[in-house]
Amino acid sequence: MNTRLTQTQSESPDLLIVGASTRAAAASARRAGYRPLCVDQYGDQDLHALAAVIPRTSEPDGWLRVLAAYSSLEWIYTGGMENQRELISQISERHRLRGCGPDSLQRVRDPFFVEQLISGHPICMAPCLPIDAHPADPENWLCKPLRSAAGLGIRLLNSPQPDSQDAQGCYLQRYQPGQPLSALFIAFPEAVVLVGLALQFCGNPVLGARGFQYCGGVTISPVTDRLRSTLEDLGTTLAQGCGIQGLFGCDLIWHSSERDRLWLTEVNPRYTALTELFELQYRLPLLAWHLGACRSFHGDPTRYGSPAELQNQLVESIKQSFPQIAKGILYARQDRCAPDIPLPEMQRDLFAVPESADLPYPGTSIPGGTPFCSVYGTGRNQRESLKVLSDRLRTYQMLLAPEGVPERAAADLLTSLLDSTEQENHFFSCFFSSEAEGNSFLEESPH
Q1: What pLDDT was estimated at residue 436?
Q2: Phi, psi of 92 (to 5 degrees)
């Protein structure tokens, strides 16, 4: 963690962002015309170029005192904070939360509540059991922390339990093999809008990720109206049943053997790690729409309009020939020190896709199993974007650990990433073809 405190910007901040990693949300804030103040665990170089930064330490008393010096700000949180309801309440005593509050989080982060809420929906929750259950097939169940993010701490039930894991803070969920997907929504008082659907990369060893760690993703083709309707119905049920406001994500699993079945595994009631990909893809300030949606729940004025207006903007954006965007998060395989990577100059076009981001200061300690940086790839299609991503990832692997990168690293990376796009092709051929197997609930009727 970099412990520099940045408070030298001439402009006063007008949006507070708190989380483990806030760089992506800070960039979104800049695209939306805001001046962010970030409480952040990593303090990377590019975050300091975007925002005023307060180092986030494990004991919050120190940085809460620093925050107390600021006048009341609107504020949002990023990954991991949804598990800290008391801390959210503390911050909200002074600053105006734009997102899900503690009552909403208590519902949406309860897997048993969510499972019951959407029972009977075409997209069901992967079955859950209490931690003291003893399923007859433990090899088909996951042990998942109730307070976790980015796939951390998830393991197969029949695998050894880490010494650091408190089993009482966990639950069981049936393991659903298949392709991880992520759907992003924005909840307004009167409607929920599906922003997009993406493939997720999880536990990819060539990226240094372990177990079920989140390690990136790639935007996928626009979905048909029928699938959009099914997903938006899911999002509406969740938002209304849990009191969700603004941006939220749903982690899903699809497997080719279950032709018309998607499973929900988790709900992320906040700005998600893939939000920036949709924002860059569509060239829309999604954080501005999030803030507008949240304000409308409280009757506060907003310059952003209705769900129908957002839907129209998304439709118009999808018609444009924007490049496909992929993102990979590169993890350190063992303890390392960050190399000297010059920070690129800030581009005038805030929607330009960077080559890399989340760049630590030279000499920063990077423990094994933790993120080193994010790398991006763009192209006319997914294959091109993943080829660019794999080449760039190898470059950054060489910077981090030049002695540990095999000659075939780029080829292995590309192969592993293309496996996911092959799943996407199968996904769409199964759901959206009009072959004579009969229509699934996600398939358009033939004309």
Answers
A1: 30
A2: -75, -10
Please tell me the distance from the alpha carbon of residue 267 to that of residue 249, in angstroms, as a whole number: 6
What are the structure tokens assigned to 310, written together?
Answer: 């957002």
**Closest C-alpha among 312, 273, 392 to residue 27:** 273
Sort strands 52-55 and 128-130 into parallel, antiparallel or unpaired.
Answer: unpaired
Task: For residue 32, give the 3-state DSSP assignment.
Answer: coil
What's the whole-model pTM score? 0.89
| Coil, strand or helix at 331 | strand
Q: Please determine, for residue 161, whether its predicted confidence score (pLDDT) is greater than 80.
A: no
Q: Which residues contact 316 (CB under 8 A, 6 or more apart)?
A: none
Judged on CB neighbours under 10 Å (0-12, 13-18, 19+), 248 is: buried
Domains of the chain: 15-97 (3.40.50.20), 106-126+176-447 (3.30.470.20)
Determine contact, residues 325/280, Cβ cutoff 8 Å: yes
On whether the CB atoms of residues 368 and 335 are closer than 8 A, the answer is: yes
**Amino acid in the structure at residue 290:** H
Q: Using DSSP, state whether 103 is helix, strand or coil.
A: helix
Q: How many CA atoms lie within 13 A of 344 on its CB side?
A: 10
Sign of CA dihedral 424, 425, 427, 433: positive
The amino acid present at 312, given as its one-letter code, is N
Instruction: Please name the residue ranges forming H helices in 270-306.
Output: 275-282, 286-297
Report DSSP letters for 2-20, one per residue: ----B---SSPP-EEEEES
Whether the Cβ atoms of residue 251 and residue 142 lie closer than 8 Å to each other: no
Q: Give residue 303's pLDDT.
A: 75
Residue type, 101: G
Query: Residue 359: which residues within 8 A CB-CB, separation 6 or more?
Result: 44, 45, 46, 341, 343, 373
Please provide the distance, in angstroms rounded to a whole number, between the alpha carbons at the two ends of the chain. Answer: 58
Asked whether the predicted pLDDT for residue 427 surpasses 50, the reply is no
For range 234-244, the mean pLDDT: 98
Burial class (CB in 10 A: 0-12, 13-18, 19+), 322: middle
Torsion sign (Cα): 77, 81, 87, 89: positive
The per-residue pLDDT for range 372-381, each reduced to its tens digit, is: 999 999 998 8
What pLDDT, on a 0 to 100 scale, did the predictor assign at position 3? 39
